[in-house]
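Title: Comparing notes on inverse folding

I've been comparing how different people in this forum approach sequence design from structure. To keep things fair, I'm posting one structure and asking everyone to reply with a full sequence. Here's the target:
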């Protein structure tokens, strides 16, 4: 049986810059999720945006 230990050392409130970066990431993910799966591939590279 494997054993694991989880350590937690407090929480620091994120800065406005970090929250803005997360906001941009979530907006991008939401836009990609709204598309048709067949349109997600970048034709120039053959991979998702």
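Reply #1:
Here's my take.
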């Amino acid at each position: 049986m494997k054993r694991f230990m989880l350590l937690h050392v407090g929480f620091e409130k994120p800065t406005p810059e970090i929250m803005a970066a997360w906001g941009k990431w979530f907006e991008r993910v939401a836009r990609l999720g709204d598309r048709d799966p067949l349109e997600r591939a970048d034709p120039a590279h053959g991979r998702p945006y």
